[in-house]
């Protein structure tokens, strides 16, 4: 691995040093280490949601950096990391299969452990990389066990329900619509400010706290040579990822998740009616299968971290304060 300088990064260099490491199948992954951590501070590794980037959470992570040593990363296909094409070569595992993200996370966490002398790692993640953590523990327990995990806080991991689960039909219909909408995303923008203004009036993005909306707009757009901007996570890649996570095997394997670390799940409000995300609906069932405590945030949805970063901040801080 090496510290990087040129190229796009989703977190500015004056805030965090960026490193390039090798993930599963040789993909280049960008990992960030925030500067100025207090001496002896607990270690927190943060994982972002699909279609976002580490820098999308910058206001939250900067606030946490005053009392913890923060690491974050851009997942494959996102931010400053490599973007493999969505189609797999004949016979190969798809580039955005859940197992790819799980093994990437193991490589990232091993890098963090090396950087910090093997000290305990607290992990917090939203959506995509919350699911990657569970996938790693369920599918690759030996690899999971090589990391010095301490506690984990998972904001709504997308765990697709099997056919026998009551909300299976709801999940199928809503995820199919999400994939279709994602493929139509506008990819080219004049500026991050233009993108942020657009998001202000768009669906779930309209409920974002203004500072989080601006941070996401800056982190999700990669500059182009002609002075324009393009989505760092291309629509076809984001759509392929959402389609890949219709695999129900992670949900089925949850009882096998290692029980030697403290784990808490966080859900938005499952009683918000027909507009709720299917992931919000499944999180309570997942917590039961994991025998893990669940925090429900009333009136918030799947993107709760952006809607109410203050509540998210309080929940994350409790990870090490409960030690």
Please give the structural blueprint.
Elements: E1 2-3, E2 16-22, E3 28-34, E4 43-47, H1 58-64, E5 69-74, H2 98-115, E6 121-126, H3 128-139, H4 141-144, E7 149-155, H5 168-183, E8 188-189, H6 192-199, H7 210-220, E9 221-223, E10 229-231, H8 235-244, H9 249-253, E11 262-267, H10 278-290, E12 294-296, H11 304-307, H12 309-321
Parallel strand pairs: 4-5, 4-6, 6-7, 7-11, 11-12
Antiparallel strand pairs: 1-2, 2-3, 3-5, 8-10, 9-10
Helix pairs in contact: 1-12, 2-3, 5-8, 6-7
Summarize this structure as a short list of keywords or feature phrases.
323 residues, alpha/beta, Rossmann fold, 12 helices, globular, disordered N terminus
Distance between the termini: 31 Å
H and E order: EEEEHEHEHHEHEHHEEHHEHEHH
Provide the CATH superfamily: Alpha/Beta hydrolase fold, catalytic domain
Adjacency order of strands in the biggest sheet: 1-2-3-5-4-6-7-11-12
Low-confidence stretches: 1-6
What Rg, in angstroms, do the CA atoms define?
18 Å
Q: What's the architecture in CATH terms?
A: 3-Layer(aba) Sandwich
Cα shape:
globular
Q: What's the story with the biggest beta sheet?
A: 9 strands, mixed
């Amino acid at each position: 691995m090496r510290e990087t300088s040129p190229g796009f990064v989703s977190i500015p260099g004056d805030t965090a040093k960026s490193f390039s490491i090798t993930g599963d199948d040789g993909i280049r992954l960008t990992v960030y280490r925030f500067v100025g951590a207090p001496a002896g501070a607990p270690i927190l590794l943060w994982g972002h949601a699909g279609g976002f980037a580490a820098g999308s959470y910058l206001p939250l992570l900067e606030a946490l950096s005053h009392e913890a040593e923060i690491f974050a990363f851009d997942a494959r296909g996102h931010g400053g990391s490599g973007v493999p094409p969505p189609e797999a070569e004949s016979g190969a595992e798809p580039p955005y299969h859940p197992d790819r993200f799980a093994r990437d996370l193991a490589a990232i966490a091993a890098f963090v452990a090396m950087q910090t002398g093997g000290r305990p790692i607290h992990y917090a993640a939203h959506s995509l990389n919350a699911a990657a953590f569970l996938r790693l523990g369920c599918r690759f327990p030996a690899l999971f066990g090589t990391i010095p995990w301490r506690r984990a806080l998972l904001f709504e991991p997308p765990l697709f329900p099997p056919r026998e689960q009551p909300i299976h039909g709801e999940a199928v219909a809503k995820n199919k619509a999400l994939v279709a909408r994602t493929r139509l995303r506008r990819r080219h923008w004049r500026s991050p400010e233009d993108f942020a203004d657009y998001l202000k009036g768009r669906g779930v993005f309209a409920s974002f706290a203004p500072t989080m909306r601006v941070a996401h707009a800056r982190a999700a757009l990669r500059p182009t040579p002609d002075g324009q901007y393009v989505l760092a996570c291309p629509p076809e890649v984001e759509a392929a990822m959402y389609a890949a996570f219709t695999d129900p095997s992670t949900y089925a394997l949850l009882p096998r998740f290692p029980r030697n670390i403290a784990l808490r799940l966080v859900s938005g409000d499952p009683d918000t009616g027909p507009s709720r995300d299917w992931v919000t609906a499944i999180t309570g069932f997942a917590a039961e299968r994991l025998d893990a405590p669940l925090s429900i945030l009333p009136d918030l949805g799947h993107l709760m971290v952006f809607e109410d970063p203050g509540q998210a901040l309080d929940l994350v801080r409790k990870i090490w304060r409960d030690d």
